Amino acid sequence: MTKEPRRVILITGASSGIGRATAELLAAGGHRVFGGVRAPATTRPPAGVELVPLDVRDEASAKACVDEVRSRAGRIDVLINNAGVNLVGAVEETSISQAQVLFDTNVIGVLRMVQAVLPDMRRQGAGLIVSISSILGFIPAPYMGVYASTKHALEGLSESLDHEVRAFGIRVVLIEPHYARTNLDASAAQAEARIDAYAPQRQRTAAVITRETSAGLEPRRVAQEILRAIEGRYRMRRPVGQAAPLSWLRRLLPARLFDPSLRKAFGLDPSRKGATYPRA
Fold it and tell me: What is the predicted pLDDT for the residue at 256?
């Protein structure tokens, strides 16, 4: 008799990077894994993973994906919100339409998936929702400000949601990786505008981002933390790699000490001494 898989898991953005590595690792561990991708017909399936069509930016697609998994497997035990997009550029350089795309994917896309799976999770009295956040969910990100704002929003959404659903046997987890070697960071879109005043600092910060990404976490390292979140003891926030000490520093250091170190890390000019906001 074939051993029944331990969990039925749906992961979004499973075609590459962290999503693909996670799908393969979970499937190898005996879980039944469904990978949501936008183009299943042209996507090479990760080993042991069943692909299902999904565009998290489309509510009908999100519901159809969840219905498809439920019809095949009978339930969904774990939702992993991995699909996301990135953007590099100053806040002033970012168009409203670009910002809307980021929020529609990174925040509203998560909301669509959560709302699609929660009714069944509530009925079965159990479930786990895992969302891929970032170190930029708890620290500022000059020249990735809009992206960081989506991750800050995801953190607030997830923590609030956990309080709402834990009485139904459902918990929420945030995975907070440091920079990872994925297409998300390496092929990030650029802000549409180019304002000369930002150019020197933007270029230095972009060099830092490129360097950190090149030396970043392997996707499998993040996947292993997701596996621990599913199979191990519950902990809501799970920083990965250098995100762990940064998380502690962010919480413990006063802003006057954390702020200069962050500016230095991003290659920014020191703050002007005595600079303050205009007074009437």
Answer: 79
Share of residues in the chain with pLDDT > 90 (%): 70
Q: How many whole angstroms from its chain centre is CA 192?
A: 23
In the numeric block, which tokens belong to residue 52? 């299902």
**Host domain of residue 169:** 8-265
Please check whether residue 124 lies inside any domain of the structure.
yes
- Classify 137 as helix, strand or coil: helix
Which of the residues are catalytic? Answer: 15, 133, 147, 151
* Contact (Cβ atoms closer than 8 angstroms) between residue 21 and residue 47: no
256: left (phi over 0), alpha (psi -120 to 50) or beta: alpha
Whether the per-residue pLDDT at 4 is higher than 60: the answer is no
For 181-208, the pLDDT digits (tens) are 776 655 678 999 999 999 998 988 888 8
Count of structural domains within the chain: 1
SS3 state at 247: helix
Residue 270 lies in a domain: no
